[in-house]
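Sequence only, no structure available. Ideas?
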Amino acid sequence: MLITPQPELSGVIETELDTLSPQNVTVLGGTTSVSQAVEDKLNANYPRWRAE
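Reply:
I predicted one. Tokens follow.
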């Protein structure tokens, strides 16, 4: 589990995602938990993610 601030995908988390090379990324809580900007970045970098 990686936790990022709501308004942005932190550099530390982004680096960890690059290191882990996950097959899937799941965001819990939707835009209440992370901003649309974070979701947009995930769409660009990890096309197989989903929000729950």
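The chain is about 45% helix and 10% strand.
Hope that gets you unstuck.
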